[in-house]
Write a structure and sequence with these properties.
By secondary structure, this protein is an alpha+beta fold. The chain has 3 domains: 54 residues, Structural Genomics Hypothetical 15.5 Kd Protein In mrcA-pckA Intergenic Region, Chain A; 85 residues, Alpha-Beta Plaits; 79 residues, 2-Layer Sandwich (Alpha-Beta Plaits). It has 6 helices and 17 strands. Helix 1 crosses helix 2. The longest helix has 9 residues. The two termini are 39 Å apart. The structure holds uracil. Uracil binds next to helix 5. The site of uracil has 8 residues, from helix 5.
Length: 238
């Protein structure tokens, strides 16, 4: 017997988007099963028997999985399209013909490490809270936060009514009016690092993600990318 599969999982396995984004595509009425638009999130399909389309294109399983680490420049959005016409990160992937999607997000004004892939399962694994995948950021913040304030960020602070998970925070360098701080978190709330520093009255002036787990950007130039191999993928979860 052929096994039924949740529609958003199938879309993700076919490299259309992460599972979360695939759910959004369904909700937005962009997905058809046998020619009929479905918006029911719970729907199951049988891949061998149903014809699935998204934005009018057939959704078929990917054979080649690709993993890329991009050093995202400021000014680029990490969505797959932008109604305001701002540049999108995938436009930087000049010689890649597969449809890749970003794993998680980086704000338009944040630069640094961004993984792109067509492997929905890996994207799901990186983002799933149970794996607690760490992300390391370098934040240049205004002024000189006191040690007790950094300790507060480490323990967790309430943002929008919810306590942040424990973090690691290291002051790396001070200049006259700013401090370079390395912060390691494993949550992915919207603008989380910026909000954490706003909460202690030391707003972020510049933000860069330098690693997922132990997968570091190192010397990858801004706007450039490299293919990831199995060892790199392992490093994400260390
Ligand atoms: N935290 C932020 O504030 N912005 C990002 O882009 C990522 C993490």
């Amino acid at each position: 017997m052929r096994d039924p599969l949740r529609l958003h999982k199938y879309l993700s396995q076919c490299g259309i988007a992460s599972r979360r984004k695939a759910e959004e595509l369904i909700q937005q009425g962009k997905v058809q099963v046998n020619g009929r638009t479905v918006t029911d999130m719970g729907i199951k399909i049988i891949p061998e028997e149903n014809i699935i389309t998204c934005d009018g294109f057939a959704v078929v399983p990917q054979t080649k999985m690709l993993y890329i680490l991009l050093n995202k420049p400021k000014g680029y959005v990490t969505t797959m399209a932008d109604p305001q016409g701002r540049p999108i990160v995938t436009s930087l992937l000049k010689d890649i013909h597969e449809r890749l999607f970003p794993v998680g997000r980086l704000d338009i004004d944040t630069e640094g490490a961004l993984i792109l892939t067509n492997d929905g399962n890996l994207a799901q694994k990186i983002q799933h809270p149970s794996h607690e995948t760490t992300k390391t950021y370098e934040a240049m913040v205004a002024g000189h936060p006191h040690r007790s304030q950094l300790a507060q960020l480490e323990k967790g602070i309430v943002l929008e009514g919810k306590l942040t998970a424990p973090a690691k925070v290291f002051a790396r360098k001070t200049t006259q009016h700013s401090t370079l701080i390395e912060i390691i978190i494993h949550e992915g709330r919207k603008r989380q690092v910026r909000k954490m520093f706003e909460a202690i009255n030391h707003p972020v002036l510049h933000l860069k993600r330098i690693a997922y787990g132990k997968l570091f950007l190192h010397k990858l130039p801004i706007g450039k990318y490299r293919l990831l191999g199995p060892r790199d993928i392992e490093n994400i979860f260390l």
